[in-house]
Structures are given as C-alpha cells and as structure tokens.
Amino acid sequence: MDERCALCGNRTAQMDLDIVSFEGLEIQACPYCRKQLEQAVKNPAQNSDWLQNILQVDTKGVRTDEVTAALTRICYQNDIPRPQNTPTVPPAPIPVQAVPTAPVPKATPAVPNASAQPADLEARVAALEKKLQKLQRRMLLSKVLGFVIPAVVACILAIVLVRSEFFQNILDYYSQLGELANSM
Predict the structure, then answer these.
(1) For residue 161, what are the contacts with CB-CB under 8 A and spacing of at least 6?
(2) pLDDT (0 to 100) of residue 143
(3) Residue range 148-172, pLDDT digits in tens
(4) What is the distance between the alpha carbons of residues 141 and 14, in angstroms, rounded to a whole number?
(5) CA 75 – CA 52 distance, rounded (Å)
(6) Among 8, 48, 42, CA closest to 28
(7) Band (84; pLDDT cuts 50, 70, 90)
(8) Which tops the pLDDT comparison, 34 or 112?
(9) Which SS3 state, helix, strand or coil, does residue 158 take?
(10) Which residues sit opposite 22 in a β-bridge?
(11) Residue-wise over 72-92: b if at least 16 C-beta within 10 A, else e?
(12) CA 60/CA 94 separation, integer angstroms
C-alpha cells in the first residue's frame, strides 16, 4: 500500500488504482473516488457536496494543480442558483436579556517572577548535569567490571585446576590413548 489516490490522497494498493479520464485529464484513482467522480461528472449539481469535500482534503501533495482546477470547474459549473421568486425570510431578532455581570478580576501576569525563572532553569540544568555525570561513571564502571570480573574468575578457575592436578590427569589420559593408538 505505497500508492496514493490522485483525488483523495489516501493510501491504496496498486491493483486497486485505475485510470480515470475527466476534463481532458487522466489520473489514477481509488474505486470510491472513481465511482463518486463518475456520478459527479454526470450530475454535478447533485454531487457538489462530495466535490467540495474532496477539494478540501489534504492530499499530501499527490493531487496536482490541474486536477484541482478540473475538480473545481466540475463542482461550480452547474451550480444551481436559487429561484428568484422565493421570498427570503430574515431571521427573527434574538431578544437580549440583561445579565448581571460580576466584577472582572484583574489579570495576573503569566510569569510571576520573570527574573527567577532563568535562575530556576539554571539550577535544574546543573542538577541534571550532575545526574548525567553520575550515570556516565556508573556505566563506565559497569563496563569495566563486566570485563574484569569474568577474567578474574577464569584465572582463579585455571589456578585451581592446575593445582589440583586435574590437567595432569587429562594429559596422562591423552598420552595413554596416543600410546595405545601407536601400538595398534
């Protein structure tokens, strides 16, 4: 769904887009827009609401100026004028009632102490810098310990194994296997 309809700008699958011709233009439109445009071309006065709505839609730069101009022409070409003999009734005046008003409180400034604000911000920045330094130290320490502790444990394990003559037993075993293999 990486294609967009040239009328409404909505994402549509490539297989759903089809070419539509109107006002001498050919564009790729989604099924809904094709159907609505077909109805609007046949009877623009009845479908002017859809045309006006589609003209107001943000198409994210997909609709060209030519298409917008063609849609505008279709929308307003057969605009049905009001009949001249229909009397227009002015709206009835709304009676105004007296509403008791309370005294309006005096507006307070948005920043009560403008000179204290930068000092507060500087204090917060300094506190954040200290926290950041502590965090950096902890991260460095955890990296160092993550490397040193396994190395120390491996060294201690190797010393214990050498002192317990475990390696000597393994070497003797392999030498016996080698002698056995040579004798065969």
Answers:
(1) 167
(2) 94
(3) 999 999 999 988 888 888 878 888 8
(4) 54
(5) 7
(6) 8
(7) very low
(8) 34
(9) helix
(10) 25
(11) eebbeeeeeeeeeeeeeeeee
(12) 44
Reference 74, options 55, 93, 101, 97; nearest CA is: 55
At 112-131, the pLDDT tens digits run: 555 668 888 899 999 999 99
- Looking at residue 131, what is its pLDDT? 95
Lookup: tokens for 10? 């909505």
Q: Across-strand partners of 25?
A: 22
Phi and psi dihedrals of 12, rounded to 5?
-145, 150
- CA-to-CA distance for 121 and 115, rounded, in angstroms? 11
Sheet strands (E) in the chain: 3-4, 11-12, 18-22, 25-29
Q: What is the pLDDT of residue 103?
A: 58
